[in-house]
Amino acid sequence: MSTELCRDVVAGVVVRSGRFLLCKRAASKHHGGLWEFPGGKVQDGEAPDAALARELAEELGAIAKSSCRVLAEHLDSSSGFLISFVQAEIYNEPECKEHEQIGWYTPSEILELALAPADEMFARGFFGTG
After folding, report:
1. Contact yes or no for 14/20 (Cβ under 8 A)
2. 64 with 53: CB under 8 angstroms?
3. Burial class of residue 19, CB neighbours in 10 A (0-12, 13-18, 19+)
4. Domain limits at 114?
5. How many domains does the chain have?
6. Cβ neighbours for 64, distance < 8 A, ≥ 6 positions apart
7. What is the residue-level pLDDT of the chain in tens, covering all 130 positions?
8. φ, ψ for residue 116 (rounded to 5)?
9. Disulfide engineering: 83 pairs with which of 9, 28, 71, 78, CB 3.0-4.6 Å?
10. CB–CB of 125/107 below 8 Å?
11. CATH no. for residue 16?
């Protein structure tokens, strides 16, 4: 695996029938109440695809596979994390375990959500409005 994929945080860009999976962060967390593409921190020595699979299992009970294709990277200046947005698939229906809410949204619906800063930068660039 390429070392250029090793980043602090990975976020899964999961699409199903033209809708993307997003999660609303718990109010008690950093960026609480804002929407994000699911994922989390890469642990020391962990491959980014393994980190994404682990995070999606922990947060959503999802069985996931990453394509290792990084779609974009954005710095969350408030946390200092570099977030790699990675194309991913899940093979089961996700469960809301750690978030306030989860859902499947079209690109236009996503752009209407209150997104975490890096997720908003990604969405605007990826969906062609930024």
Report:
1. yes
2. yes
3. middle
4. 3-126
5. 1
6. 12, 14, 52, 53, 56, 57, 88, 89, 90, 91
7. 344 444 589 999 999 999 999 999 999 888 889 999 999 999 989 988 899 999 999 999 999 887 878 999 998 888 888 999 999 999 999 999 999 999 999 999 999 999 999 999 999 999 976 5
8. -60, 150
9. 9
10. no
11. 3.90.79.10
